[in-house]
Structure of DUF58 domain-containing protein:
Amino acid sequence: MVALAVLSGAGAVAFERPALLVAAVGPLAWLVSRQYAFVRAAGIAVSGLDVEFTPERRTTPAGKPLSVTVAAKLPRPVSAVVRIEPDVPVGAAADTESTVLLESPETDGSLSFDVTWRVAGRYELPPARVVVEDAAGLFSVETTMGDSVVVDVDPARATDVLVRGGRSDRFVPLGVSKPWLAGQGTEVADIREYKPGDPTNHIEWKATARRGSLHIREFEAETNPSVMVVFDARARLSAGETGGTKLAYLREVALSFLQRSRNVSEPLGLTVVSDDGRPTMLEPGSAASHYKQVREQLFEAGSEGGSQTNQSRRSPGSARAAALALETEQSAFARHLEPFFQARAPYASAVSNDPLYRAIVRHGSVAGGDSLTVICTDDAGRTALVEAVTAARRFGSRVLVFLTPTARFDGRLTQDRLDEFERVRAQLAGMPNVWAYEVAPGHSIGTPEGDTEPQSAVGQHSAAGRGDANTETNVAEVQ
């Protein structure tokens, strides 16, 4: 119709035919009147439309559908069609492609749909897409409306998160074994294989003779130690698909420890590692308000082998001290060693400036000798990781390390990379009083070809109290 009006107007001018000009004015006038009516209707709709999201609850377990209702209401009927289209939240699966449709004389409507998150965290229900168009489809305007609604997703038993200790490690759910609590009481809790650093007076000789290798007795803890969670929220932890990043999976592990501590009134502290090297710290506490504060910090965070003895290598601090001493030393021996310490200086500097290492050192000032340190991080920056775990051990703490393998999150999953990750995990697990676990999406467990897990040196560092070999467990059991 617009084209016809334009042609009529052009013909009237070209052929000096006034009748054609009159024919052009009619459609143009009609078009202008429709546009004017639409502008008025759209103005009323956009300014007066109220869109509200109402979730069935504000806190929901991962893996459980959450019903969400979207209600739309106009102050009065408008001569336009209004479509309200809910958007699927980040990291969620929704069962809706439905639309709330308001056509005159309707002024209100609603729909309900289910949303499911598979990983714990804090998520937003985003504003809805609103489209206003005239009945003829000539004009339209689009905007977003409705306040974002925050939903907290807690860990649940039926999630995609798996935690395990390696192909050859003996593994049981941590809530059953609690090997890091052993040795604090007098009642025998378990008998397990000897590990370097275990007290020799706990050796169980009958089990040793029967099984052909050294075994020791573990004892029930008389009291619950404080738990210090070190949560790595640096930018690199955002690797992975939407809603399934390293950060999301590690957060689920940390929330599981929070859940456990709250259930038994156990003191729990938190250190959040950031890229700027200034960690956020909450000292251990067991009040309800404290647990709530820890929970808030976890949801906000990221907002989404060789000998391990001190004699085997220098710590970053001792390397720096030795290098400094050599600066004033003039002997031939010092001149001979100077290139070695110059090469070590960048290493020492890199480790001491690593945010995780620095956070562990600060964390050690509030962690008591009877504390349990839980480190949630990835396998990147492996040198600094090993030094950070070593530092945590120096504070007299038992250490749990939960690692997300980068190979499972960056889209470049290869056998060699899985083998390398397993060597690093096994190296950490070989340290006295250290337990190291892999945290990964359940659907990615296995090799790139779907075969059995890669062979590794992990069997050489069998970790204490880890149950049957090659066993997987849901993260909610890690409590």
In short: Confidence is low (pLDDT under 50) at residues 9-15, 169-186, 304-329, 447-479. DSSP finds eleven helices and 25 strands in the chain. Residues 429 and 463 are 6 Å apart (CA to CA).
